[in-house]
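If I may wish for something, please sit down with the protein I am sending here and say whether tokens and residues agree:
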Amino acid sequence: MNFKMTTEVKDKECLISISGNLDTKTCEAAELKIDSALAKGADTIEGITFDLKNLVYISSLGLRIFFKLAKQYPSNVKIFNVPEEIMSIFKLTGIDKTMNVVPA
């Protein structure tokens, strides 16, 4: 599955959907797109919500994006529709302890 990401700012929330692989080939583009969406709504965004329903694979660089956002937006990053395989990685790395993570 090819990488695809959409961002939308709605009601003080930045909604981000990620599909495909979040790996060394796609992380830079993903990070730029996230930073751009957050910069556009800098005065209004209070939280970030990720929909990972169609995320197939995540590398350590992809995990770094989530840890970075958790530092920038403490208690305001939510991740839902996390596939079972990705959820096991989140549990191993502790992402599920630093953010609100909901399995699919």
